[in-house]
Amino acid sequence: MKYYGITDKGLHRKSNQDSYVIATNVNGDIFAIVADGIGGNKGGDIASRMAVAHFSKEFSETKGFRDLKEAKRWIQVNVTVANSAIFNYGVENPQLKGMGTTFCGVMITSVGRLVVNIGDSRTYAWTADQKFMQLTMDHSLLNDMLMHGELSKEEAANFPKKNVLTNALGVWETVRSDIDIHNEKVSGFMICSDGLHGYVSLDLIKKIILHDDIEPSLKARRLVKAALDAGGYDNITVVLIDLGEDRL
Length: 248
Hints:
Blueprint: E1 2-8, E2 18-24, E3 30-38, H1 43-60, H2 68-92, E4 100-101, E5 103-109, E6 112-118, E7 122-126, E8 132-134, H3 141-147, H4 153-156, E9 178-181, E10 188-192, H5 194-197, H6 202-209, H7 216-229, E11 236-242
Antiparallel strand pairs: 1-11, 2-3, 3-4, 3-5, 5-6, 6-9, 7-8, 7-10, 10-11
Helix pairs in contact: 1-2, 6-7
């Protein structure tokens, strides 16, 4: 297995509110996470860093899981803990009220895999037969309206509130998380913030990802360059996991 993460401020933002981590434990499990901070001032920066720091520390201290039910419960508990910590920090610092972050990741363990999502960062997977698929569903006003037939795909392209989230870590006292078992045979995973998927066409992302003869680090850099070439309007973060011989 090979993995690589990269983040870039982009060309227009004053700071980078994205954070990421590829955490490991003594069992050889990994938990790769992308967090895209939201909130004015420094709130987004702090929220995404708090989320990543919490999960990195807690995951590194685990000794593996007996089954996916235990792993899923571990994520649920720590999502609740991290949500409370970020929410309370915002309450205690009024200038940061409303701070929060997306939270999207893949946990790969000896007992199986889990995909977790809160917000509109995304996880994709690809297969040896050139399939490229989105595994997560955006928690956004735009996606809700699409799902309920209130917007067409054509109207969605120019929807003025694309960045309005319906769910995020730390913004509200409670949070919901999508945690799904992923047992399909795949070659790898890509986790990214909307600085990539919001500006670079899926066709171009797929073309770069399915270029099998280059390393994950080069693919990730090419994806960031594509986002910069598209205008670099947002922070950009990409984490790639190439399963190699560990495909299940």
